[in-house]
Amino acid sequence: MQRDGVIAKYAIGGAVGAAFYLEPASTVDIDIFVMLPSPTGSQLLSLAKIYDYLQARGYKTKAEYVVIGGWPVQFLPASTQVELEALNYAVEADAEGVKTWIMTAEHLVAICLQTGRAKDYARIVQFFEQKAVDAERFHELLERHGLEDKWESFERRYFL
Amino acid sequence: MNEESRKALRQMSFTEKIRILERLRDRSLMIASFGLRRDAKNQNASKPPAKSEQE
């Protein structure tokens, strides 16, 4: 898709991205954050291009998902500064012989902090319990994106 | 699960973790579909019999 100009960059986030660093936890889908090649165009139109591209290659769609290798995959346009940065800092990984990109642990935690659902907060706790976050890099990230207050409030609630 | 097993899980390769995630996903989907089938069965059981069945 990158070669054909359908997406510019991508990285796996969500529970599957987290599994790169943590014990695998049950999930039924894969979240792939994408940087679309035409930032001036409508994101919906560019997302439609992804779905059309994959459908033309025989992949089935199911609601907002495309089924790839048995996994419902959701493509999410990177929209916040943290998500866009996460794509630039993504690390290379090997998944069954295929090269892929995974968000860093620090970016995954920052996105969970921004998203703020109960399951996101639970994942943040897992990252820290399993010592999967580089504290220095994480605090620099929080500072860069003005997330220090949100983090302090999270820490007060869950770690004190 | 003890700390050693958890550490071993964390240190697995991404490919091995993907295989575990696939098993967990299939199990979740199976449990979900079982729940739906059971609900449908219960709903049918609680419905009054169709007219043709009554006759």
Task: Please give a structural write-up.
The complex is a heterodimer of chains A (160) and B (55). Chain A starts with 8 loop residues before the first strand and ends with a helix. The relative contact order of chain A is 0.14. Helix content of chain A is 46%, strand content 22%. Chain A has helices at residues 14-19, 43-56, 81-89, 105-115, 118-129, 135-144, 148-158; strands at residues 9-13, 30-35, 60-62, 65-68, 71-77, 91-95, 98-102. In chain A, the strands form two sheets. A five-stranded mixed beta sheet of chain A has the order 1-2-5-4-3. Chain A is built from seven helices and seven strands; from the N terminus they run E-H-E-H-E-E-E-H-E-E-H-H-H-H. The radius of gyration of chain A is 16 Å and the shape is globular. Chain B has 55 residues and is mainly α. Chain B contains three helices and no strands. Chain B is elongated. The A-B interface holds A 15-16, 19-28, 70-71, 93-97, 102, 130, 132 and B 6, 9-10, 12-15, 17-18, 20-22, 24-25, 27-29.
Record keyword descriptors for this entry:
heterodimer, A: 160 residues, five-stranded mixed sheet, globular, B: 3 helices, 84% helix
Write a short abstract of this structure.
The complex is a heterodimer of chains A (160) and B (55). Chain A has 160 residues and is of the alpha+beta class.
The overall pLDDT average of chain B reads 79
Strand order of the largest sheet of chain A: 1-2-5-4-3
The count of DSSP E runs of length 2 or more, i.e. the number of strands of chain B, is 0
What proportion of the residues of chain B form beta strands (DSSP E)?
A: under 5%
State which percent range the strand residues of chain A make up. 15-25%
Topology pattern of chain B, helix = H, strand = E: HHH
**Largest contact between protein chains?**
A-B, 22 and 17 residues
End-to-end Cα distance of chain B: 58 Å
